[in-house]
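Troubleshooting entry. The earlier prediction with NAP gave an output that would not parse, so I re-checked the input for stray whitespace and re-submitted. Clean input:
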Amino acid sequence: MSDMKAPLALVTGASRGIGQAIADRLAADGFFVVGTATSAAGAAAIAERLGPQGTGVVLQVQQPEQVNPLLDQLEQQYGPLAVLVNNAGITRDGLLLRMKDEDWSDIMAVHLDGVFRLCRRAIKGMSRQRRGRIINISSVVARMGNAGQTNYAAAKAGLEGFSRALAREMGGRNITVNCVAPGLIETDMTDAVGDQSRQALLGRIALGRAGQPDEVAAAVAFLASDASSYITGAVLPVNGGLYFD
Ligand code: NAP
């Protein structure tokens, strides 16, 4: 596939961890991948890594004024958006009793407000194409719960509900909306988890180990591909058996 004709995939938070693995995998699968980072240096590193298969751009997903102009520019430059992967994420962990207002609102802004605006803009072009794939990165915590993460669990559970509702709205336009819910994956985000909680979590994982970012990327690649054409409104767990519904 020639680079300019390759279908366009946008992956938020592609500078590190799971998002980087998703960007690499979608590029290998033949997409032209635009990955986002919060800094110019991060965006440049994404562009260098993807080479002719993609590029990097700066985006703070919680900034309302950044979303529409970015999507306008990308669609003008690279053609219609085929795949949107909402992966960017942060944590602001702490017990509820001591949780600050910003710890709550920052999580909602990144995980929910950002996804809302990106999806609202993305479905415009996808509707015209009568084809689209939206993949939202949730977490095992949405269903399992986790002490110290009421804010994050609420946002991820909200994200799953949002995705199911949007799947119903957009099904008639052949746009699928699904979630991938990772368990404990080795990234900067989980480096911050203390040794004790890590050991406790590992003890509950059927496969007995943490996951790697490319194991999440494989699930995303499936949902982005034609092979998943009859799957929508689903949550695909990638957690090694940490939690079963
Ligand atoms: P990570 O290594 O900490 O990387 C986070 C990514 O999100 C980075 O690319 C970062 O960009 C970007 N980002 C952070 N704040 C942003 C903002 N305000 N606007 C736009 N981009 C922003 O995280 P990860 O572990 O790969 O997690 C990726 C996703 O998987 C998240 O949604 C997370 O909740 C979810 N998840 C992770 C795990 C896990 O075990 N790791 C488990 C379940 C779910 P910069 O590099 O520029 O900061």
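This one parsed fine. The pocket of NAP is lined by residues 12-19, 36-39, 42, 59-62, 87-90, 110, 137, 139, 182, 184-185, 187-190 (CB under 6 Å).
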